Amino acid sequence: MSGVFDSRICDLGEGPLWNRDCGQLFWFDITGKRLLTQTADGPKEWAFHEMVSAAGLVDATTLLIGSETALFRFDTSTGIRTDLCTLEADRPANRSNDGRADPQGGFWIGTMGKAANPGAGAIYRYHKGEVRTLFPGLSIPNAICFAPDGTFAHFADSARRLVWRISLDGEGWPKGVPEIFLDLSASTPEPDGAVMDADGLLWLALWGAGMVAAFAPDGTRVRIVEFDAPHTSCPAFGGADNRTLFCTSARHYLTVRERLAHPDSGKTFARAGVARGQYEHKVIL
Predict the structure, then answer these.
(1) Active-site residue (options: 98, 192, 197, 228)
(2) Which positions ≥6 away from 60 have C-beta within 8 Å?
(3) Which of 24, 66, 113, 143 is geometrically suited to a Cys-Cys bond with 109, CB 3.0 to 4.6 A?
(4) Residue 33: is it exposed, middle or buried by C-beta count within 10 angstroms (0-12/13-18/19+)?
(5) Is 264 part of the annotated catalytic residue set?
(6) pTM of the prediction?
(7) Phi-psi label, residue 142: left if phi above 0, alpha if psi -120 to 50, beta otherwise
């Protein structure tokens, strides 16, 4: 069983992101409305007035963060927030969810109903100051990740237990019609966050199964990494050699008995030497 990277408990841990410029992992506690990291001097976190869920890298000290109402620049050295654009600010029943920067410098961000209302969410792309709706009518958008060569992306709707693959053009915009890559509708665990490694494997957190599973390009499951937390939520690669698999988890929706049986639920985990990850792409603002 993998070791605990950070012992702070998140109600809904999500969005881990390795910043190689500063050598730190950042992640979120969505319902706790905070951003967390581990520095050379120890743990650090920032509190927000609204839910925050995912980020893209801008530089060594700057993140692009998705919140309930906006996409904003956040300076981790000063704590200063600068809003760039609104994000469903007119829909208070919604919040942001999974997101990731693409190889072309854009940032994909999903939204969903706070009560996981069917069809209330969507996936958007922010690119050079412009926001476009990519995929409307989703319930729990997740698993946003990109092929190493930038030619296609994956995304999921956890509520439907489906993961799609969509081709991208040279500017990173979707082209054609998404095709189903994984159909997990016959299983209980839900597809949650995902990342692709440098060799093209999809590493997918399975909410309810306590693991991250690796899938080959043909959809075959080739490996699993287990964690002692049923609700594994999102993986990320990082560390000095970019071969450490980090994974956030959640206590959200666990019963008292389940929390007692899995006391590490909500913590952030790490397993070294798993695979060769991609370095996270940077957002072009």
Answers:
(1) 192
(2) 19, 21, 22
(3) 66
(4) middle
(5) no
(6) 0.97
(7) beta
